[in-house]
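seq as requested:
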Amino acid sequence: MSAFRMHLRVVSESLQPEEISKRLGAEPDESTAIGSRKHPQSPPRSHATWIRHVGAAEGRARPEDLEPVVVGWGPDLAEALGRLADSGEGDVSLEIVQEITDLDDPQQKGMALGADLLAWMGTARATLDIDQYVFHECADEPA
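struct tokens:
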């Protein structure tokens, strides 16, 4: 498994996932509807989510390996996302999750985002959300 995962996320308090898909001309990999519940006892969701995962051919992908996938979704999707964000009916974000399990593995640390991806995100009016998790057990201190 890669130390990095990436996905595009749209959140809306007024549009259901089907409406978001229609506006974007694209389908999500997963979604949640306004009013749906995570568990039967959970309160109804106040917003919808529309998520498209960014995948690479190889399992150990870094953000720079995933960039061509996002940029490859094309300018039409970026422009549709930008229109949706500008309308105020949806918030767009590109989310990167980084999990560091081996502090000595240079492939698990650092990231670089290229100009083409940043330009695509600008057109899409997407914010960048980076979640970082370090799983490391500290050595016992001598007494």
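The CA atoms of residues 82 and 124 lie 4 Å apart.
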